TrEMBL record:
Its EC number is 3.1.3.62, 3.1.3.80. The keyword Methyltransferase does not apply. The active site is at H64 (nucleophile), D332 (proton donor). GO terms for cellular component: plasma membrane. GO terms for molecular function: acid phosphatase activity; bisphosphoglycerate 3-phosphatase activity; inositol phosphate phosphatase activity. It comes from the Eukaryota. InterPro entries: His_Pase_clade-2, His_PPase_superfam, Histidine_acid_Pase_euk. This is Multiple inositol polyphosphate phosphatase 1. Residues 1-16 form the signal peptide. Disulfide bonds join C53-C381, C254-C269.
Length: 464
């Protein structure tokens, strides 16, 4: 709160002067799914264990760390990077509204050729993110880092960025201990941490569905986005007429390059105002809401298998046969589906591309940043002379609404999570999914009632 008030005061003081990116005291730091983990994380070491309790098992789900852009994004941002000389020339002839130092920084900027050789690969920054998470867990739960290696289990999806993230996490977790921990090989088909990959219902009707395209189209047609487009065109003063795709590619090159620097700055971000960045951030919120979030019942169901795994691991630990640490490394898609299955970050009204709600709960900068995670801790406790268990939950190393910091009781955990033990992926077959769609189910039931009524009427007619 103090930081926010200070930033507001600085903004008010600076509003009368020309705004420059290079020396902004409180620049906007939220860049949706490309937000660095350190921007939004807490520190799990700062949260006390429940009184009279000791951790006996940790289960965690992680998005991979900071990565290079994908092949399609790399192609797009390399194309828009060719505007560099035109932007500099526009400033030189007085046609630009850019600041001198921001132009100087742009002149120094160079394209990184390794992006085309290691597309979507984990970066050094991403390795450090996962290593540091593992390190903080080691320092918080030292009592768990004893025993045989079969008390630990780690697995990732079959992508370089998730495999390397798992290795980084295990490095930080086991460093300085006697444990020689390894990450299991990715499964050929992993319906626990990557169930959507082979789910036809999801791939055809959600990820490739018309609803997602319509909402994104509505976003790009909003007055807010059109204002961003006009602002950037005027600010740069270039003859090239920027398309909506160009604007978003400029945003991509801005947010990727800034995420790799110690100062978290990129000269490409200077083409936007803070308000421009707020509007551009919303595009990913819309996209992920319909692709991975509450925009489809399919997404909520796909979050079930991994929560079943959580429940079964903690149940085994309570029965004396569980593991000390179980961790998985996957993608933002899986984390968002898991949060939806838990009912987290759900707004009263659906997210819509045509209208941005500034007070929305669904913000991908917080729920889909690099290295975003869900950490569950099972504690064994002594309460009133009896052994009990309490479960704590953390998202990005911060407390959550799932349980208080003192933890849920074992009964409360069972009552909420037992429902996931019956989860399955039968709905993924397009032919069978009709029985799982609430809207279709209701319509089908109504149609069946009509058929039954008609059959009864015919029966009595024939009796006459």
């Amino acid at each position: 709160m103090i930081r926010r008030l200070l930033c507001l005061a600085v903004v008010a003081w600076a509003s009368a002067e020309k705004s420059c990116y290079w020396n902004a005291l409180c620049p906007y730091r939220m860049y949706s799914t490309i937000t660095p983990y350190d921007t939004i994380r807490g520190d799990i070491r700062d949260y006390p264990n429940p009184e009279g309790c000791q951790a006996i098992s940790v289960w965690s789900l992680h998005r991979h760390g900071n990565r290079n852009p994908s092949s399609s994004v790399t192609t797009d941002i390399k194309a828009v990077a060719d505007l560099k000389d035109e932007i500099i020339q526009s400033f030189g002839r007085g046609g630009s509204q850019m600041c001198s130092q921001d132009i100087e920084e742009l002149k120094k900027w160079k394209w990184n050729d390794t992006l085309e050789e290691s597309q979507a690969f984990l970066t050094g920054t991403g390795y450090e993110e996962l290593y540091d998470i593992g390190k903080r867990l080691r320092e918080k739960y030292r009592e768990l880092l004893r025993g045989s290696v079969d008390k630990y289990y780690f697995r990732s999806t079959n992508e370089q960025r998730t495999i390397a993230s798992g290795m980084a996490f295990v490095h930080g977790l086991a460093e300085g201990t006697d444990l020689n921990l390894t990450v299991d090989r990715p499964w050929e088909r992993d319906d626990i941490i990557n169930p959507y990959e082979h789910c036809d219902k999801y791939q055809v009707e959600v990820n490739g569905g018309q609803k997602l395209l319509d909402e994104l189209d509505a976003y790009f047609r909003t007055d807010e986005f059109q204002m961003v487009k006009n602002n950037v065109q005027e600010r740069l003063g270039i003859e090239t007429q920027l398309s909506p795709k160009d604007i978003y590619s400029l945003y991509e090159i801005c947010r990727f390059y800034r995420s790799w620097t110690p100062t978290k700055q990129s000269p490409w971000c200077s083409v936007f105002s803070d308000q421009d960045l707020v509007v551009l951030e919303y595009r990913d919120d819309v996209r992920h809401y319909y692709r991975n979030g509450y925009g489809s019942w399919v997404n909520l169901n796909l979050g079930g298998p991994v929560l079943k795994d959580l429940y079964e691991n903690f149940e085994a630990a309570v029965n004396g046969s569980g593991r000390n640490v179980v961790s998985y490394f996957t993608h933002d898609t899986m984390l968002e589906m898991t949060f939806c299955a838990l009912g987290l970050f759900k707004d009263d009204a659906p997210i819509r591309g045509a209208e941005r709600n500034p007070d929305r709960l669904w913000k991908t900068s917080f729920i889909s940043s690099f290295s975003v995670n869900l950490i569950a801790v099972l504690n064994s406790c002594q309460e009133s002379g009896s052994q009990t268990y309490r479960v704590q939950f953390f998202i990005n190393e911060r407390e959550t609404e799932l349980c208080p910091t003192t933890g849920c009781t074992w009964r409360q955990f069972q009552d909420y999570f037992h429902k996931f033990t019956t989860t399955n992926l039968d709905f993924c077959s397009i032919d069978n999914s009709i029985v799982n769609d609430p809207e279709t189910k209701a319509a089908t039931l109504a149609e069946m009632v009509k058929i039954c009524v008609t059959a009864i009427e015919i029966f009595f007619y024939l009796l006459k």
